[in-house]
Amino acid sequence: MKITQVRNATLLLEVGGHRIVVDPMLGAKGSMDPFPAASGNTSRNPTVDLVVPLADLLDPDVVVVTHTHGDHWDTAAAALLPRGVTLLVQNQADAEEISAAGFQDVRILDGTVTVGQTSFTLTGGRHGAEEVLSALPVLGEVSGVVVRHPGEPTLYIAGDTVWNEKVQAALAEHQPDVVVLNTGEARVGPGFAILMGDQDVLTVHEAAPAARIVAVHMEALNHCTVTRAQVRDLARERGLGEQVLVPEDGETLTF
């Protein structure tokens, strides 16, 4: 299994001979409006350009969209990806939105969906604490996914979520070998966290001590507050430098 960190939450997976793009945000630097940020940062998004050649992302076998916020499914992805690609989404609303853009093979992850010998299983998430979701219903429903292929490590991509009982349950049920966490700790309103941060890496490690953790979703959006350096430094302080991996954009990890 190979995992290439593209940018933000966008990943390119090579699993069992399949090329899988997760949460494609393919637009140029500054092509989206800023998100409301507790820090007051008004930089346009994404704040960095792609370093992976765009052409390398436009011929996948499968695309997984954990939810349709603009940093996981942007107008460039909707315009550029091939209409016949297999697209896996979390619910009917996302399926209708993506199908309306002309995609012909949109499948809802109702339990487990298998493509070839690779299986994809939906997991739950929460885009902020309950009081945050009540105050900001626009955050909506989010999901993660577990990817399995015979002879390959089991991969759990948690998606845009804070630590909660759904993530804890997914770790316990699926016993992943590799866990991808979105750890940018995006903050909105008066400072509400809507993503995990560096401290949550320690919590996930305690819940799944045998898993390798890959920390992503940093240094690409105006409302994210945790940096790669912070995650690396904390991991080293706790003796987890080999267990917690923090790839740069364009870096490929092999498991």
* Topology as a string of helices (H) and strands (E): EEEEHEHEEEHEEHEEEHEHEE
Instruction: Categorize the overall geometry.
Output: globular
Proportion of residues in β-strands: 25-35%
**Mean pLDDT value:** 96
CATH superfamily: Ribonuclease Z/Hydroxyacylglutathione hydrolase-like
CATH top level label: Alpha Beta
- The CATH architecture is 4-Layer Sandwich
Number of distinct helices: 6
Question: Major β-sheet, in short?
Answer: 7 strands, mixed
Low-confidence parts: none
* Head-to-tail CA distance between termini: 5 Å
What structural category characterises the helix and strand content? alpha/beta
Oligomeric status: single chain
Order the strands across the largest sheet as they lie in space. Answer: 6-5-4-3-2-1-16
Explain how this protein is built.
- The chain is of the alpha/beta class and 255 residues long.
- It has helices spanning 75-80, 92-99, 130-135, 165-174, 198-207, 228-237; strands at 2-7, 10-15, 18-22, 62-64, 86-89, 105-108, 112-115, 118-124, 143-148, 155-157, 178-182, 187-188, 192-193, 212-216, 244-245, 252-254.
- The strands form 3 sheets. Strands 6-5-4-3-2-1-16 form a 7-stranded mixed beta sheet, with helices on one face.
- A hairpin with a 2-residue loop joins strand 1 (2-7) and strand 2 (10-15).
- Helix 5 crosses helix 6 (228-237).
